[in-house]
Amino acid sequence: MAADLGELLVPFMPTIRVPKTGDRVYKSECAFSFDSPESEGGLYVCMNTFLGFGREHVERHYRKTGQSVYMHLKRHVKEKTTGAAGGAIPRRRNGKVFLDLELNRDFNGEDYEYEDEAKLVIFPDHFEIPLPNIEELPALVTIACDAVLNAPSAYKKQEPESWDEEIQVSRHARSLRQLDNGVRIPPSGWKCQKCEMRENLWLNLTDGSVLCGKWFFDGSGGNGHALEHYRETSYPLAVKLDTITPDGADVYSFEEEEAVLDPHMSEHLSHFGIDMLQMQRRTENGHHTDNNPRPRVSEWEVIQESGMKLKAVFGSGYTGIKNLGNSCYLSTVLQVLFSIPDFQRMYVGNLQRIFDYSPLDPTQDFATQMAKLGHGLLSGQYSKPPMKSELIEQVMKEEHKHQQRGISPRMLKALVSRGHPEFSSNRQQDAHEFFLHLINLVERNSAGSENPSDSFRFLVEERVQCCQSRRVRYAQRVDYCIQLPAPIEAATNREELLAYEAKRKEAEENTRAPPEPVRARIPFTACLQAFTEPENVPDFWSSALQAKSAGVKTSRFASFPEYLVVQIKKFTFGVDWVPKKLDLAIDVPDFLDLSRLRATGLQAGEEELPDLMPPIVLPEDTRGMTIWLRAPEIDEGAVMQLAEMGFPLEACRKAVYYTGNMGPEMAFNWIIAHMEEPDFAEPLTLPSMMDPLPSTSDSPMGATPLDNLPPEESIAILTSMGFPRNHSIRALKATNNNLERALDWIFTHPEEEESDGLSDMADTEPNDNSFSNMNSHSDSTLSPDRETSSPRVKDGPGRYELFAIISHMGASTMSGHYVCHIKKEGRWVIYNDHKVCLSERPPKDLGYIYFYRRLSSS
């Protein structure tokens, strides 16, 4: 028999590989579906590429590659027999096969035991060889099989930075000496005893001193007085005050110089009058809320509709998404996108074509992974109602109602977050930033094909007026989302807010418990009004006056998108540079008419500003010579503040420079908008040399165009927006390969054969608050025989109906939890990770991002 098996495998030996360092072994999930070893058909792992395939997709891989040998993995799940002492120990014949994988096991997995089975399968005859079979298999095959079975999870290899080191118990915890000095710590109103700081405060567990920290591992900073106190007293342990919950707290050992665990935390805190059981619980996956729990508790209850008997729903379009640990920001955005027909049609409607033409490694293909997730959400295959027998069994056992398992977005998350400093981590993120990031990827991967993000794209007309000469300049930019300010001064309960603030300050000064919080209630019309009001243009240079002057800017819709995304600007920066959320409610309407905000363009009687740029003055004695421009002035203080937040130093310098030294907050916004650019962390480069007598240069800055072609990636991005290749190259050369400025240049320098429709547009300074201008596309309705510089938009009436809400709970975008509500089939549905239920009371006034669909003109 051994000889027979050896002979059988001889033709396939060259295709069987042993996994090497760096090879990813996908043995927990199919590359095309969410099948796993727990699925009915198990999972097939290719012994050459180490990709995993479900039973429906393994034949496709065999036909495409000719690879015949696969390892079939199957996990048999059995319910533990009751009455066994301590419960049965799970049997794992191949114990290491799946131990490090996150499978589709039930949430009460402790009630089940698993038996794992592995075998080699040879295609196309499906000849099976059970494993282990060491004596009968050739040595190479045995080594390869053992390596696959014992290989770590592919996801651990992709995301090494997300696996934190295990925190150890401090050696001082058991024998910590605490002074009996009568110190009692109030529940709020804390401040540093040396510098009055109220952020990043640490309680020394020996003498009860409250002092500020200096470290940035927790996202905040200070003046280092806690460390100074340790150097003076040698008291080793301190706990961060706003992290104390019934589950524990963040503890730091000065002597051990690392974060530690304190098993006796409750006892140590009670010495200073702190009862851990009364502290607010942590938010999702270990993140914390602020030390004033009441407004956050209410917010959590309202948004998640806690206390209501919500009815679970199943089937197509009602599939939940597992939380991988602070991945709810991703889940909510994907749920909303795949409720839109354009995304359904692009990825699910073209599923077979995408799968058939996928590359050899489909795990690294954006379209394949989007199609996979879209099919998982819309097929209903992973959202089936419980069988009647299961319901009866649950009632007999008095178990909770049945909840679907949901699908895991791990493969897609690993792909779309690759190389991104924030999304590749396990930290909570801003859903709005991820939405823009995902649209960016859709744009880049839709060149030459249907682009579903067209439905979000619109043009904004910006009108800048010189206050002294009264002349105007019009320009257009591409955007995908409008950001509405939340003017607190327009709150309908302003008097109540002022009274609360006075009471809060009084309680803080007297170290008393704060009063019951008051949530600001702001009319939606006030947010729209704030959006449309003129705003001052900082450091405005008037081409009419040839000097700096006062300028104002107004924004209007040059086109209306098919789907309008509205973000409420609820977040601001605290003193620790952590985004903090304003506690407010806005009466967002179900129906919205923005027709009055339609842009009008240059009006009769208006005079345009000359299309001139600020002059560059050269010294007299340098005429006729090549001149090196003086190094730009950069606020190094702002650069260091950004660098301390973890951004690359050169990127921080560029951010401060391109925002005109307007401060760290403006520079931070620039970083968020440009961090996906290939040269994000490259050194700041300006036109370094200038011809003293430039010829007919197309550059608005007078810079000499580069002799070499711009990067092909930059050209591809502009051409994918619908701009002609030659025009894109000229724009990039004229702007030193800066994509954002190149787009502005294209608008202000239309080709001669183009219509006059864009000739009135003039260059403006890049708008740091707008979404990346690189992400636009040509219009499918444009005539194919006419090239144009206009990005593709689906313009129409400005009347909309609300159909989806993404809501955030927690104190900042760096913590908390997201859920979304989507209106389907005339009813609102809440998507809370893997749980999908009919909504009884959607929290329309507490949303963070609102999605509207255009109403038909009929």
TrEMBL record:
Native species: Poecilia mexicana
Keyword hit for Zinc: yes
Entry keyword annotation includes Repeat: yes
Domain UBP-type residues, every copy: 168-276
Family to which this protein belongs: Belongs to the peptidase C19 family.
EC number: 3.4.19.12
Basic and acidic residues biased stretches: 784-796
Superkingdom of origin organism: Eukaryota
The entry's keywords: Autophagy, Hydrolase, Metal-binding, Protease, Repeat, Thiol protease, Ubl conjugation pathway, Zinc, Zinc-finger
Protein name: Ubiquitin carboxyl-terminal hydrolase
Residues forming the catalytic site: C328, H817
Region (Disordered): 752-796
Biased composition (Acidic residues): 752-766
